[in-house]
Amino acid sequence: MRWLNTPMDLIRHLRYFVMVADKGHFGRAAAALGMTQPPLSQGLRRLEEYIGTPLVHRTRQGAVLTSAGDRLLAHARQLVDESDRFLTEAVRVADTRGLVRWGAGSALPDRLLTACVAALCAETDAAVATESGTTVELVDAVRSGSCDFAIVEHPAQVDGVESGPVTKVPRWVVVPSHHRSAQAERPRFPMLSDLTFAAPPRAGNPAAFDAVRGLFRDRGLDVDTTSARDDRAVLAAVAAGTHFGLSTTAPGSAPGVAWLQLAPAATAVRLGVVWRAGADTDRFVAALDRVLVRERVR
After folding, report:
1. pLDDT > 70? residue 6
2. Distance, CA of 251 to CA of 170 (rounded, Å)
3. 270 and 154 Cβ atoms separated by less than 8 Å
4. For 247-296, how does the pLDDT look when each residue is reduced to its tens digit (9 = 90+)?
5. Is the N-terminal amide bond of 155 cis, ω within 30° of 0?
6. 71 Cβ partners below 8 Å, 6+ apart?
7. Domain with 78 in it: what CATH number?
8. Looking at the structure, do residues 175 and 253 belong to the same domain, yes or no?
9. Which residue range forms the structural domain that includes residue 286?
10. pLDDT value at 298 more than 70
11. What are the distances in angstroms from CA 8 to CA 2, 5, 68, 102?
């Protein structure tokens, strides 16, 4: 099957489809989901591409199901309802065990990840469970209730959740150790034009991905991009000699990799806490924010 090697948050996208079918209109469906219309429309289009058939006719009056959409709607609704029941029961079970569930975005460096867990443990006697994921995945997890709160990268689409202040945390430009920029007394972004930019996939946080590309372009650098799931994958691509990247891993002794400080304030990663509205998470959110502030760019 063509979709087996293509990851997708299927339940989230089926929820989009069901809501559009129920409301008959993208704007009303987006409002009901607590999000804006463009990501809803894009998400439904990704679902259609994923399964290989259109589900909705887009008209000036709204959204009308295709024959395939009409046949698949009941199945989609059943999966979404079962997912909601599962999450409700999971929350109930977690609450009886005294479990704090939080999410750590892939941009959060290891040194901050462990500091955050320690800070949360200091606030409660309950067990602390950490979920890793992209910004899109974690915002959706918080919105659905499978996570109580999370640290995510900004800018981001945070419709349907509460969002705290954004803190800039150091991030470095990493290049092959033999590259001319690593040997230059005053390296500049255009020197990286012969390298490919290794970065997490755009789907994980389109807004932040586009902001970084815009930053490069403003500084005279327009490069091709290849996907690297996380910091380790970025460093591996850089060590191979043909890529550069951005890394929150502090400068160290990684063979084949050199760390550059290029526009440190602009390249810093912007991190913030998101949480469910009405959830009793104030002390946890404050504890995580204190960890971020200690590491901020000065």
Report:
1. no
2. 11
3. yes
4. 999 898 789 999 999 999 999 999 999 998 878 899 999 999 999 999 98
5. yes
6. none
7. 1.10.10.10
8. yes
9. 98-166+270-294
10. no
11. 13, 10, 20, 21
Q: Is residue 3 part of a domain?
A: no
Q: Scanning the structure block, which residue is given the tokens 């997890």?
A: 141
Burial class (CB in 10 A: 0-12, 13-18, 19+), 237: buried
Same structural domain for residues 140 and 277?
A: yes
User: Is residue 147 assigned to a domain?
Assistant: yes
192-230 pLDDT, tens digit each: 999 999 999 998 999 999 999 999 999 999 999 999 988
Q: How many residues make up the chain in this entry?
A: 298
C-alpha closest to that of 142 among 290, 28, 291, 35: 35
Whether residue 103 is predicted with pLDDT greater than 60 in this model: the reply is yes
Q: Are residues 63 and 116 in the same domain?
A: no
Are both 143 and 199 inside the same structural domain?
no
CATH number at residue 159: 3.40.190.10
Closest CA to 140 of 245, 233, 35: 35
- Do both 141 and 277 map to the same domain? yes
Residue 4 in domain? no
* Domain total in the chain: 3
Q: Write the CB contacts of 238 (distance below 8 Å, at least 6 apart in sequence).
A: 174, 175, 176, 198, 244, 245, 256, 257
The CA-CA-CA angle for residues 213, 256, 178, to 5°, reads 80
Sheet holding 225-227: strands in order across? 225-227, 196-199, 243-247, 172-176, 257-260
